[in-house]
Amino acid sequence: MITKEGLADHRMAGRITAQALEHGRKLIRKDIPLLEVTEKVEQKIAQLGGKLAFPVNMSCDSIAAHYAAAPNDASIVKNHVLKLDVGVHINGFVADSAITIDLSGENSDLVKASREALNKAIKEIKPGIKLGEIGACVEETITGRGFQPIRNLSGHEVGQYIVHTGISIPNYANGEKTEIEEGMIIAVEPFATTGVGLIKEQGSPEIFSIPVYKPVRIGFVREIVTYLETNYKHMPFSKRSLMPAFSLAQINYALSSLKPILREYAPLVEQKGGFVSQAEHTMYITADKAVVLTKEDA
């Protein structure tokens, strides 16, 4: 059961997440550098007193998730279906939320499909509902608009210094009988696609984590490991997370030498190249409903 103090931190993280997402929404326009938006969203989070729970994700078109700007990223926002996924923590207590912005003007129904699936799921969620029932609600809503849910991506519980923990919340009717319980903090995140509804890893990772720390010998690599363990613990980080404390050459060398203990998160791409939309909120399960934490008035 979450403590009163922990819930208060989740709530604050949720409010900051909502404000950062709205800030990003207003910034996103055609011909703006993706890196510029990323940096301004990160700055907003810091100004509001939050810390990154994971690198800001800006995933375009068939990339469903896990695209984070590289230090020298030259990507320019064009006619994209763009997912902005933001995670914030306060004292390690995480909030996670995402929106999709259709800059093409041709994929509004796809955007509505994931958003409506999320909203309907929130109305259904309460203690005792089975995970498979949530998945069925999401799937029915998305297929009702003529699209497919992404079946190998799911929602999740969040915890202290852990973005993905505990149960996974499916985006399709998988028959899972595990029940939602009072006191849980969960993130529900439907993905809708014009493709077949499956993703694969593709491309170079810019998101990393270290699940288990081990001693290292090289001086500056040891400094980087100490920096990560102190500031990120086991949470995801990017190369940009380590700058300007370390040079890019040092960071690249360190990540290469840390391969045996490093977890890498490559971009997740729809298998047939279908466009993808995403919607996500983090919520607290009370005795009779789900209370959304990732809104400005939470």
Your description of this structure?
The protein is α+β, with helices and mostly antiparallel strands and 298 residues long. It is 31% helix and 24% strand. It has 6 helices and 16 strands. It has helices at residues 4-27, 34-47, 108-124, 131-144, 219-231, 248-257, and strands at residues 51-60, 63-65, 81-90, 93-102, 148-149, 155-157, 165-169, 185-188, 191-193, 199-201, 207-209, 263-265, 268-270, 276-278, 281-285, 290-292. The strands form 5 sheets. Strands 7-6-8-15-16 form a 5-stranded antiparallel sheet. Strands 1-3-4 form a 3-stranded antiparallel sheet. Helix 1 packs antiparallel against helix 2 and helix 3 (108-124) runs antiparallel to helix 4 (131-144). The protein starts with a helix and ends in a 6-residue tail after the last strand. The model has no long low-confidence stretch (mean pLDDT 97).
Write the layout of secondary structure elements.
Layout: H1 4-27, H2 34-47, E1 51-60, E2 63-65, E3 81-90, E4 93-102, H3 108-124, H4 131-144, E5 148-149, E6 155-157, E7 165-169, E8 185-188, E9 191-193, E10 199-201, E11 207-209, H5 219-231, H6 248-257, E12 263-265, E13 268-270, E14 276-278, E15 281-285, E16 290-292
Antiparallel strand pairs: 1-3, 2-13, 3-4, 5-9, 6-7, 6-8, 8-15, 9-14, 10-13, 11-12, 15-16
